[in-house]
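thought: fold this chain, then report.
action: predict
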Amino acid sequence: MINSSTMRPTVGQCRAGIRSTAVTSQRTSLGLLARHIRPLYRPSQKWIEQRKPIPSQLTALIPYRNESSVPPPASEYIPPVTPLPYADLTIGVVRETYLTEKRVALTPANAALLLKKGFKRVLVERGAGTAAQFTDTAYEKAGVTLGEMKTVWTESDILLKVRAPSFEGSVSEVDRLREGATLVSFLYPAQNRALVDKLASRGTTALAMDMIPRISRAQVFDALSCFVGCGSFWENDDSSDDGSGIPPCKVLVIGAGVAGLSAIGQAKRMGAIVRGFDTRSAAREQVQSLGGEFIEVEIEEDGSGGGGYAKVMSKEFIEAEMKLFLEQCREVDIVITTALIPGKPAPKLITEEMISAMKPGSIIVDLAAENGGNCVKTIPGQLVEHNGVKIIGSSAQSYTDLPSRLATQSSTLYSNNITKFLLSMTPEDKKFGVDLKDEVVRGSIVTYKGDIVPTAPRPAPPPTRPRPAQPLPDAAAAALAITPWQKTTREVATVTGGMGLAVALGKATGPLFMGNVFTAALAGLIGYRTVWGVAPALHSPLMSVTNAISGEE
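observation:
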C-alpha cells in the first residue's frame, strides 16, 4: 500500500520541478515531467499486482465477461466426446409398466448381436418380453443375464425402454434410474417438460427415439414411422369389413408419411377408393404411385419442413385446407389422420363441423391420438361416437396403442432401430460415445449429463424441382395456325373424299368385297378404342382374355 504522506512530497516535488523549468524548451519539460512521475508509477504498479486475484481453474480458462456481454448461443456449445469401451458397459432392458403395453425394447436376436459386438453384458428383467412372445429361455440362449427389476435399473449404464419412464406418484421409474446413466426411449419432450427436468436432475443423458430426424442416414433408426406404420396397417384392416375386393367405401388419408402411405396401400388393396392429402409437394408422386388420388388446395405453398416432416402452414393455407376437408368429409366413409409436427402437439384438422357433415356410420381413425389427436373429439384411449360417427384410435381395449396389438412385430422393428442407433454412436472402434456433432444424435438428444440440450434445428428440406416453363408460341407458329373456318373446310373435304372413294370402290368391286372391308374397319376401330382405354400394365392380361374368348390359346 502507498502512504499518503509519502505521496504528497513527491507530488509537490513534481509541481516544483515543472514550475522551475517553465522557461526551458518543450522537450526538456517533458523529460523532467517523466523523471518526476516515474516514482509514482512503481509503487502503484506494485499495488495493482497485489490486488490481482489468484487464477482458479475456471478463471484461467474462461475470460471475464461483464454484465453487458452476450453469451454464445447454446447450440454452439459442443462438449468433447468421452468414448467408453464396450467392454465396460452394461445394457439394461426393463419390463414396460404401462397398463396395455406389450412391447419390449430389445429382442433376443439383437441382444446376441450387442454381446457379439463386445458389450460387457445385456441385463434383462425377468418376463420383460413375455407379452411380445419372447421367453426368458430365448434370452438366456442369446447370452443375456436375467435379473430382477431393481437390479436392472441400478446396474445399467445404458437403459433401453419403449415408453417414457414414469416420474410421478409413489412408483417413480426415474428415481430408480442410475445416476449418470444413458436412457434411450420414446420421451416426447415437448409434451413432457416435467419429465425432462426430472431426468436432468438425475444427471441423465437422455435420447428420444421420437426426435430422430428424417434424413437418409437415419431411416434405419426411425422407430416412430415403423410403429405408426404398424398401427395404420392394423387399423385400416379393422375399419373395412369387406374383404371381397368390391369397393366398400371411400377413404380419405390425411398425411402421406410412412403411416399414411401404408394406409393408402392397404385400403387400395382392399378395393377402396382412396384419396390422400399432404402439405408436402413431394408426397404427390408417392400417393399416386400407390393408386391413390392426391387432393390439394388451390393455394401454392409447400409444407416441406426440416428433417422430412411437415411445417406449420400459413393462416390462408389452413383456411383453404379446412374448407377442402369439409367437402371431403361429406363424401367419404373413413377418414384416417396421421399428421404430426415434431416437437409440437398434433395439429387439429377435423373439426366438429366436419364430423357433423359426415354420413352416419362413418369412421374417423386418429393415429395421432397419443400425441393429442388430429380430431377435436378424440379422447386418447377411448372410443367416441358423435352424431353417429365413430372416432377411434385403436381397439376397444387400447385406442392409443395400436402397435401393441402387433407386439412381436413391433418389438422386432423397434429392437432393430434402437440396436442400429446404439451401434452408430461409435466415435472409436469398440467404444460408445455421445457425439453432438453427429446430426442424428444432436437431433434426438434431450439431456446431456444432467444439462437440458436445446432442440436442434431440423435439416433443410431438399430443393424442389422447378416446373418447366411453358414455351411461348413464336411468330412463325402463330402465322401457320389455321383458322376455325379452314379447319372445318378441311374436315368436310376429308369426309367427302372418303365417301366418294367408298362409292367408287363399291361400283368397281361389288358388294362382297365392300362388306369384308367394312367389317375389317369396324373391328379395327373397336379394338383400337378398347385397348387405348386400358392401362399399359393390363395389356397382356387383356390379350390373354381376348385369345381365350376367340379360342386361340
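thought: worth noting. The mean pLDDT is 76.
final: C-alpha cells above.
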